[in-house]
From TrEMBL:
InterPro entries: AhpC/TSA, Thioredoxin-like_sf, Thioredoxin_ResA/DsbE_sf. Pfam families: AhpC-TSA (PF00578). Residues 1-17 form the signal peptide. It comes from Pseudoalteromonas ulvae. Keywords: Signal. GO terms for molecular function: antioxidant activity; oxidoreductase activity. This is Redoxin domain protein. Residues 49-131 form the Alkyl hydroperoxide reductase subunit C/ Thiol specific antioxidant domain.
């Protein structure tokens, strides 16, 4: 019993969401605040390269990826994005939002994972708290008019496969 408790505590501490990933997305402890059909409220960001990102001027679909550099699920999802057709889709703008991440960590992560899209630092969870309370990576697909098409919690092995539109 002690071994089970220690194992459970260890798994809980290492989970990217800090909530067991077996909880369904509709669990009150695992909330998503944006749904398909909603207008995505956050329209402007500043990248770690000091570029202004204005979603209103990007006439493409957008994939917003909330992640953390230390999270294995986030690392896997970013690798999958870069090895998929999404990374070269000329009709899609990808933006990574580093939850509780500073610019230095994000620059290293962008280089290590050879990300070809802008990253944004969200050290105080200002952006993340607008879309969810727990769970990363979190992928939010927007249409050209910045309406939410789909949200995916990327704690599953092939999260990007669920982005079919």
């Amino acid at each position: 019993m002690k071994l089970m408790m220690i194992l459970l505590a260890g798994l809980t501490l290492t989970a990217c969401s800090q909530i067991p990933s077996t909880l369904p997305a509709n669990n009150p402890q695992y909330q998503t605040y944006v749904n398909a059909g909603d207008s995505f409220e956050q329209r402007t960001f500043v990248s770690i390269s000091d570029e202004n990102i204005d979603l209103n001027t990007i006439e493409k679909r957008k994939l917003i990826v909330y992640f953390a550099t230390w999270c294995h699920d986030s690392q896997r999802t970013m690798s999958q994005i870069m090895s998929s057709p999404l990374a070269s889709d000329k009709h899609l703008q990808i933006i990574g939002i580093g939850r509780e991440e500073n610019v230095g960590n994000l620059k290293k992560f962008q280089q290590d994972y050879q990300l070809n899209f802008p990253l944004v630092s969200d050290q105080d969870r200002h952006y993340y708290n607008q879309v969810a309370n727990a769970g990363i990576p979190r992928l939010i697909l927007l249409d050209e008019a910045n309406e939410v098409v789909k949200t995916v919690i990327g704690e599953m092995p092939n999260a990007i496969d669920h982005l079919v539109w």
